[in-house]
UniProtKB/TrEMBL annotation:
Location of the NACHT domain: 14-77
NACHT LRR and PYD domain segment(s): 227-358
Major localization listed first in the record, in broad terms: cytoplasm
Protein name as annotated: Uncharacterized protein
Subcellular location: Cytoplasm
Pfam families in UniProt: LRR_6, NACHT, NLRC4_HD2, WHD_NOD2
GO molecular function: ATP binding
Residue ranges of domain NOD1/2 winged helix in the record: 165-225
Gene Ontology cellular component terms for the protein in this record: cytoplasm
Keywords: ATP-binding, Cytoplasm, Leucine-rich repeat, Membrane, Nucleotide-binding, Repeat, Transmembrane, Transmembrane helix
Length: 621
């Protein structure tokens, strides 16, 4: 449950004895050691239980880099030739390479691959996550047999048959807790699935590797899987097992009410479509890996590895084709692009690399005239995002695709320095505005990256869109320096959001708000930020839609400001009038606001009289 400070005893003395949970809550809330910096490492699902008001900064731990992966493998693998083969195999399988950022997956990889590489034949060496975890289950089950039962079994089917009951109990536990969103569970949860805790964790050996005791509150033991991926793998195994056994009652929670009524006759394609829809609608992606494993288990090659657990092997090529087509077809509206990317991973688990090959051909072609489907865009975003090389620029206008296709490409922003045309053409319809606002939510999440330059000009973002963007701008991980919002249909209300964001994030150096109806109140809010010592804004551009007045403000320091103004008469080819504020004297923000108001009136007079080409104002403080 969510961390609730009101139900905890307030602790102010470090010498006071208390329970672990009370100490943690008091540390988080700042009642205990208020000046201390507390860094809590946790899974995303558990981290979401901490109220946001107590969080100053969110840090995403990326895991192993390439060098750390190699160092880990070198420590675990003694022979140089085996080390090279393991690294080469992992690099060749994209999904394995990505997962090896997680230290526990490096452990799984070595455990599984090392025995295989001692054999002469590598025809059946695992290439997907599902195959890797299935092999790991076989290895751990065999280790349990040798250690506790003093027997060795080389037949994988017989090996799993001997441990079938315990594995299915673990699978049921994993599924029950996953659908409830739990990553930790108590003894009662294990007992409901028929698992004897002592026997499972001490005698079986299998659970010792799969489960671990997480913590101890009030003499109650809590358990979790060694890694969340084990829970997701077992949950997927349980779903497919129930389908093969026609035990649809256990799967009703995954089906909509209309399908649940006829669940006895529901096809595999329909079940998979329902699970995909649920995973797409998940806000934090907690079902992503579960979905990948579930698609991977559908393959006959994966089922053969698990045939000691499954009642039979189901091979239906037509059904597999339909499921793959459903993954490629995805048309559901208002879904986070990150969820669509996960469907690309599902295709890899089903060993369908057609989209990847088509993208490679597209990128190699000189014309790039082929129209990209939505699935192409999601897969391309995944490719760019996962690339070890940071892109210099991402220009969505280069890609021939639909408006939704460009939105699917947005996650690639995380791995580039400059993004231009990250949005769709201006929209006049209500539905278009909704789509644009949704795009801003996606872009906001991508701002927590190495992105330095973002151009969203000429798009109907409106105030709601800017509001979503500022959530990302406020992030401590945002490194954005240039933001252009020319002609984005925003008003003075957006200036309030931007002003608040600029006060919290000092990285932004240039802001372009040209051709937006900000009015005096809006500009006043933006200028108020210049008073803040935290703001490092150096350039502020604003072209008035009504007067044709272009105000270009350059701020060399928080106190020194130079304002260059170009006046362009829309009815003639006249000229350029420039106004520069004296940079030798400090100019406070309030004076700038007053000058701005006066200047707008004066500009109008200048445009009418057209009597001079350049004026120099000396601002007085």
């Amino acid at each position: 449950n969510e961390c609730d400070v009101s139900f905890s005893i307030a602790l102010h003395d470090v010498d006071t004895k208390s329970t672990v949970d009370a100490l943690i809550i008091n540390l988080i809330s700042g009642m205990l050691l208020p000046s201390a910096f507390v860094w809590i490492t946790s899974r995303p699902a558990a981290a979401n239980l901490i109220p946001s008001k107590y969080i100053d900064r969110m840090v995403e731990i990326q895991g192993f880099g390439d060098q750390q992966k190699e160092e880990y493998f070198r420590k675990r693998v003694g022979q140089e030739d085996q080390l090279d083969r393991i690294i080469s195999h992992i690099k060749a399988a994209r999904s394995l390479q990505i997962m090896c950022r997680i230290p526990v997956f490096c452990w799984i990889s070595v455990t599984v691959l090392q025995p295989w590489l001692t054999q002469e034949s590598e025809k059946e060496i695992p290439t997907t996550l599902t195959e890797m975890y299935s092999h790991f289950l076989l290895v751990q089950t065999n280790t349990k047999n040798e250690k506790f039962d003093d027997r060795q079994e080389n037949d994988g089917k017989k090996l799993l048959e001997c441990n079938r009951k315990m594995i299915l109990k673990l699978a049921e536990l994993a599924f029950n807790q996953l659908v409830m969103g739990n990553v930790t569970f108590c003894e009662e949860d294990l007992e409901k699935c028929g698992i004897d805790v002592t026997e499972a964790t001490v005698n079986s050996g299998l659970c010792t590797e799969i489960l671990k005791m997480e913590s101890k509150f009030y003499q109650r033991k809590f358990y979790c899987f060694v890694h969340l991926s084990f829970q997701e793998f077992f949950a997927a195994l349980y779903v497919f097992y129930c389908y093969l056994c026609k035990n649809m009652d256990r799967l009703k929670i995954l089906l909509p009410k209309t399908s649940a009524k006829v669940s006895g006759n529901i096809s595999l394609e329909e079940i998979m479509k329902c699970v995909v829809d649920q995973a797409l609608e998940s806000k934090n992606g907690r079902l992503d890996l579960f979905l990948c494993f579930l698609h991977g288990i559908l393959l006959e090659s994966s089922q053969r590895l698990l045939q000691g657990i499954l009642p039979h092997i189901q091979s239906n090529s037509e059904s597999i084709k339909k499921i793959i087509q459903n993954l490629k077809r995805g048309q559901k509206k208002h879904i986070n692009p990150e969820r669509w990317i996960n469907l690309s991973h599902c295709l890899i688990e089903m060993k369908d690399n057609s989209i990847q090959q088509e993208i490679q051909s597209y990128l190699k072609s000189k014309t790039k005239s082929k129209r990209l489907s939505l699935a192409h865009c999601s897969a391309m975003a995944n490719m760019f995002q996962a690339s070890e090389k940071v892109m210099d620029e991402l220009d969505l206008k280069k890609y021939n695709t639909s408006e939704e296709g460009r939105r699917r490409l947005i996650p690639a922003v995380r791995n580039c320095r400059k993004a231009i045309s990250i949005s769709l053409p201006p929209f006049n319809s209500f539905s278009g505005c909704k789509l644009t606002n949704l795009s801003c939510k996606d872009i906001a999440s991508a701002l927590e990256s190495s992105l330095r330059n973002l151009d969203l000009s000429y798009n109907g973002l409106q105030d709601d869109g800017v509001k979503h963007l500022t959530v990302g701008l406020k992030s401590k991980r945002c490194k954005l320096q240039v933001l252009r919002l020319t002609s984005c249909m925003v008003t003075g209300e957006s200036c309030r959001y931007l002003a608040n964001a600029l006060k919290e994030n000092s990285t932004l150096r240039e802001l372009d708000l040209s051709c937006n109806d900000l009015q005096d109140k809006g500009m006043k809010k933006i200028c108020s930020v210049l008073k803040s010592s935290h703001s490092n804004l150096e350039v502020l551009r604003q072209v008035s839609q009504r007067l044709g007045c272009h105000v270009h403000i350059e701020l060399n320091t928080p106190c020194e400001k130079a304002v260059e103004t170009d006046l362009k008469d829309k009815s003639s080819s006249l000229s350029s009038k420039s106004i520069t504020y004296n940079k030798t004297k400090p100019l406070i923000a309030s004076a700038l606001v007053i000058i701005h108001f006066c200047f707008l009136c004066y500009c109008f007079d200048v445009l009418i009289r057209q009597c001079f080409s350049k004026i120099l104002f000396l601002a007085k403080t």
